[in-house]
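This entry is passed on directly below:
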Amino acid sequence: MEGKIKIKLVRSPICTPEKHKRVVKGLGLRKLNQVVERPDSPVFRGMVKKVPHLLEIVE
């Protein structure tokens, strides 16, 4: 089984393009400093790579 990654929203997506907002929403993030746990798959890794300025991977 694959591991998990914890993703944290560190910057607000308010003044970002609509695509970026959709990526953040797709990850299940709503509030600043919220942390969600997702499977460590290429799908979620790719989503994080799309908006690295908004997210942080928590160890």
User: Anything to note?
Assistant: The mean pLDDT is 95. The chain is about 30% helix and 25% strand. The chain has one domain: 4-58.
